[in-house]
Write a structure and sequence with these properties.
Elements (H helix, E strand, L loop, with lengths): L7 E4 L5 H10 L5 E6 L6 H4 L4 E5 L15 H13 L4 H9 L1
Parallel strand pairs: 1-2, 2-3
Amino acid sequence: MPVQDRRTILITGAAGNLGSLLSRHLLPTGHELRLMYHRRPLPEDVAHAAHVRPIKANLGEPATLLDEHLNQGERERVLEDLKRIGVRLDVMHAQHVR
């Protein structure tokens, strides 16, 4: 796939039934997958696939999105993706400032 056609896709709940099925379906497309999970880890074949970036976070505690395991560019992309789908960012910023 040409680089200009690649997308970055964020899947929350990527370790769940639907999320892992969707992730596996998208693996061969060449898109960059950002796979968010909370308690249950991602399936091994998905977690170690090319173009996959696992993100351990809890949307119930938005400050976990700002932990050190995400670099600044990744944080900004995740926050932009979440804002686009309607997640309230003011909660994230308030918790991050504390």
